[in-house]
Design a protein that fits this description.
Blueprint: E1 6-8, H1 15-28, H2 43-52, E2 60-66, E3 72-82, E4 89-98, H3 107-122, E5 126-128, H4 136-145
Parallel strand pairs: 4-5
Antiparallel strand pairs: 1-2, 2-3, 3-4
């Protein structure tokens, strides 16, 4: 990681730098920009996600990686939840993204380690995350810092769901 990078919770004034990273993250995972320049995720979803990071009543947490010059290099969002097979909680690292120019410099690893530190402080039993099978760059990092559980993820959209 760049020796000057700082991992910290996001601040409300980070929004203008977080937003292009958020859009790039969502494009990376298959959400396209609309034909009229509409963002890859609906603005109300983006606003809700950002707002939840600052709402103590919501179970969503976040961290950003900041360069010495104040630029945001990446972010992560995570949450805690109960499980049926452990007494404590688990931590799901839901989103992790590093700006392309900062990749390979340890930013992603530092964000993962910071989430693991937060999870340990919160008493969570495990941190877990998922990625696309063909995301070879991320998987090299993930294989170095964690164990692949071999899980296969299935999804089913619910009509009328929020």
């Amino acid at each position: 990681m760049p020796s000057t990078a700082l991992i910290r919770p996001p601040r409300p004034d980070d929004y203008d730098q977080w937003l292009p990273l958020w859009h790039a993250y969502n494009v990376f995972y298959g959400h396209a920009w609309g034909p009229g320049g509409e963002p890859p995720v609906e603005p109300d979803v983006t606003a809700m996600t950002w707002g939840r990071l600052f709402d103590d009543a919501q179970p969503l947490w976040g961290l950003v990686a900041e360069a010495a010059d104040g630029r945001l290099l990446g972010f992560t969002h995570y949450l805690y939840h109960l499980s049926t097979n452990v007494l404590g909680s688990l931590c799901y690292l839901e989103d992790l993204f590093t700006a392309e120019a900062a990749r390979g410099q340890g930013v992603g690893r530092a964000l993962i380690e910071a989430v693991c530190d937060a999870a340990m402080a919160a008493g969570a039993k495990r941190v877990y995350w998922q990625t696309q099978g063909d995301n070879a760059t991320a998987r090299r990092l993930y294989d170095a810092v964690a164990k692949n559980s071999g899980a296969i993820i299935y999804e089913r959209e619910i009509k009328g769901g929020r």
